[in-house]
Amino acid sequence: MSKAKVLLKPSLFTTCLTTRATTFFSSVSQQLRSFSHQTEMDPSDSERYCYDPVLRWNPEVEDYFTKAYGPDHFARISKALTRPSSYSCIRVNTVKTTSDAVIEKLTKILNDSDEGLKLVQPDGSSPITKCQIPGLDYVVFVNGSGPHRIQYDFGLENPPKEVLVSRKCAEAVLRGAQVYVPGVLACTAHVENGDAVAVCVAIEQPGDEGDWSVNMTRGTTLQGLPTDPYYRERSGLYIGMGTTMLSRAGMFRVPNGIAVDLSNRVFRLPSLHNVLEGEIFLQNLPSIIVAHALDPQRGERILDMCAAPGGKTTAIAILMNDEGEIVAADRSHNKVLDVQELSAEMGLSCITTCKLDALKSVCLPNTVNDSTTLVNGDNSSFMTSHSELPSNEAMTSSVTSGRSEADKSCEENAKTEQPIGGDNVSQADIRKNKGRLKNGRGRTQSQGGRAGKSQGFAPNSFDRVLLDAPCSALGLRPRLFAGLETVISLRNHGWYQRKMFDQAVQLVRVGGILVYSTCTISPSENEAVVRYALDKYRFLSLAPQHPRIGGPGLIGRCEFPDGYIEEWLRPGEEELVQKFDPSSELDTIGFFIAKFSIGPKD
């Protein structure tokens, strides 16, 4: 296999931080270490009935990352990615409540829960604490624990009954979810409601043609013996013991519901789904840091280019005390509705949403056609504002109060117009109408939601822009499989991110701020994009970030066998970005943040 050549500076793998950042890092690391794995796996446990996954990568990608980070460092990153963070990070909605009130409510809720998560640390302290980073006292950490040793209490001659779940299901379970029916792939024979079962994971295996698949039909019967063709594949992939809520027949007959109540887990994290809705938002710590790096000010106009599901958008709005204008754009209609719903739930009125492809964010002259309606004479086409959606009840009504007369006139004309070709309707339209009749109303019609469609925005029309770019997501955890990404696909991700950056940089006014972020460990999507931006746009400069708790970026470049050269950061630039390492003591997801100041564009 051909190897990529990487040229690195000696300081690449250092974790040096500024003096102030070191203080932050030490205090937060000490705080988060108290959450870390309290019960380690016993080496004497069976090698089979344990949780010890090996993250599988495309060989060329593995070689690329090994060269970039070093063999030992990348091995630590890979192992960390297979495990969830040892704590849940909660952002408190300070528009509605306070951190102290949330801590009091969560303590009562979790102590009263039947999950067995009694909130008592070995030293008697509470595991629900405020973040110690200055300015982030509205962030609350909730302790989890693991990996725990699971007592299966079965010998090899009498193996436990098993339920095999999909990888996606297992990743959710490791974060605290239950085992739901759609995630069950296979089961031991003669499993009845109320049986004790071991839950294991099916992970994609390499195929004969270089592809990856599970190679299992849903409903397969597991034997639990070495003669089972899937026996070896499940070794080291057991995530806990639980009690079945359905029989085997029920698991593959009903469409939804809980299949296994997983009471004894390898990792124990509190499930906070639907808890204190509107008051708290579960969010990874680096995603909260992004909003602070943007440093939004009250009264400013800010664009979140790829806003869904709205976590960073609402974080920015809270930092602005809900004063100003935030335009939240996304190319997906349904995702725009998600942002609308979250903003209304959190009681935020400064967020305006629109459907817009990030690659077409700039509105150039002569691009506005007759189907676009301008509102208040500005450069924005119709968008849905949450000042008109103060409650969930308002979400169920049609959002039309902010529409202009031109909007209404265009719709009336559309109703009376015939399709091209007179009375002749195309076969495509006939099929589309049949599908609508068969499938019923879509999400937009059934919920009354509407996502305004934008034609883009005028250059220099925003004070600050956040580009949290779509990426390979190779920093998200827990992750049990990473084999689909290739060196070429990572390079293509970077190409699209550069195109989005080209749009973003035009929209920020001189003197403004542009923040670029991803949730991946891939240098081609992080440092290489920063290098591209600084080389192409000489008026850009990297700006300091506060708070700074992440590590430095990568210095150097990578030379690939096909002649492609990937440039990364240069000496002095590495300390101006934040790179969050999943294997570090902060115990976060893999993440990257770069902040740019916009100088005179001429």
In short:
Helices cover 27% and strands 19% of the residues. The protein is α+β, with helices and mostly antiparallel strands and 602 residues long.
Task: Explain what the structure shows.
There is one protein chain. This protein is of the alpha+beta class and 602 residues long. It contains 15 helices and 25 strands. The strands form 5 sheets. Strands 15, 16, 17, 18, 19, 20, 21, 24 and 25 form a 9-stranded mixed sheet that branches. The chain has a 7-stranded mixed sheet with strand order 6-13-12-8-5-7-11. α2 crosses α3 and α14 (487-507) crosses α15. The two termini are 47 Å apart.
Q: How many β strands by DSSP?
A: 25
Shape: globular
Terminus-to-terminus distance: 47 Å
Q: What structural category do the secondary elements indicate? A: alpha+beta
Helix percentage: 25-40%
Radius of gyration, whole Å: 26 Å
How would a crystallographer describe the biggest sheet?
9 strands, mixed
Identify the notable features of this structure and list them briefly.
single chain; 602 residues; alpha+beta
Topology:
Blueprint: E1 5-8, H1 19-33, H2 59-69, H3 71-81, E2 87-92, H4 99-112, E3 128-130, E4 139-143, E5 162-165, H5 167-174, E6 179-180, E7 184-188, E8 196-201, E9 205-206, E10 212-213, E11 220-222, E12 238-244, H6 248-251, E13 258-265, E14 280-282, H7 285-294, E15 301-304, H8 311-319, E16 325-330, H9 333-345, E17 351-355, E18 384-385, H10 392-395, H11 405-416, H12 427-439, H13 443-447, E19 462-468, H14 487-507, E20 508-518, H15 527-536, E21 540-542, E22 556-559, E23 565-567, E24 577-580, E25 591-598
